[in-house]
């Protein structure tokens, strides 16, 4: 008896972080719709496998990671070459060549002679949707919502405050987060502090400064399902420019996000009023630097607390195409 043939496969490379995964959801949805008879595999770090599956935009995950934002090896790809390989990782030859080494029947990449030019000053969501459009694949940069999790929230209705970030340049001082937590609690709001792996000391320090009870401190890096449920059920998410801000956007949870080295026009939330980006205009900085960016430090405690209280009072409605970026002076 002849075995049934395997469906054709698409391999998408985007082996970056949680925020990058969620910013790539509109492009991934475009790929999913463009290849309805294919099985779409996403190459990304194993720790993000559950998050990737939760988007509903891919059929399978292919474990691939490298230190920092380097391009991982894909040589352990199983079976025959992918029918289509798509580089959503970067614009250089490294990611293109990693996919080309698998000898796909068709390769889509910025770093090809026939590939579209790299739009250096485009928002991440827009950039990858434009890239797909150049290859005849429609994608909507605002198609970024993900399904609501079935896991119950550990703190429904709470304000989630996340003081951590992947780099020091995007990490607002802990004592300022603590002052905002004190203000939110004084106005009657329940607050929960969270942190990612390796951020326990920071979270505990903020909690201690804020007089936050231990029951409102979630350390150790929550499993993705629980973290997603926490954000989906929150009344507000306050964070720096990090993956949790993207998760709030993906669930439509009101948010206040603090920007420093990179303008929110490039990395910020979509133009929906429930998401407020606070930013001090100025020359771009190093988003991967070790110390807080000078523009980030210009954000004052009072204006951040006021922005949070404003968002908490705002009716949960969406105006689809009106930008809401606050340049505070």
Structural write-up:
- There is one protein chain.
- With 329 residues, this protein is of the alpha/beta class.
- The chain has two domains: 9-135, Glycogen Phosphorylase B (Rossmann fold, 3-Layer(aba) Sandwich), CATH 3.40.50.2000; 159-313, 3-Layer(aba) Sandwich (Rossmann fold).
- It is built from twelve helices and twelve strands.
- The protein has helices at 18-23, 25-34, 49-54, 93-100, 124-134, 174-186, 200-210, 224-232, 243-251, 264-267, 294-297, 301-313, and strands at residues 9-13, 39-44, 60-63, 84-87, 106-108, 159-162, 191-194, 217-218, 236-240, 255-258, 275-279, 325-327.
- The strands form two sheets. A seven-stranded parallel β-sheet has the order 8-7-6-9-10-11-12, sandwiched between helices. Strands 3-2-1-4-5 form a five-stranded parallel β-sheet, with helices on both faces.
- Helix 3 links the parallel strand 2 (39-44) and strand 3 (60-63).
- Helix 2 (25-34) runs parallel beside helix 5, helix 6 crosses helix 7 and helix 6 packs across helix 12 (301-313).
- The radius of gyration is 20 Å and the shape is globular.
- It starts with 8 loop residues before the first strand and ends with a strand.
- The model is unreliable at 318-329 (pLDDT under 50).
- InterPro entries: Glyco_trans_9 (IPR002201), LPS_LOS_Heptosyltrfase (IPR051199).
- This is Transferase.
- It holds the Pfam family Glyco_transf_9.
- Keywords: Glycosyltransferase, Transferase.
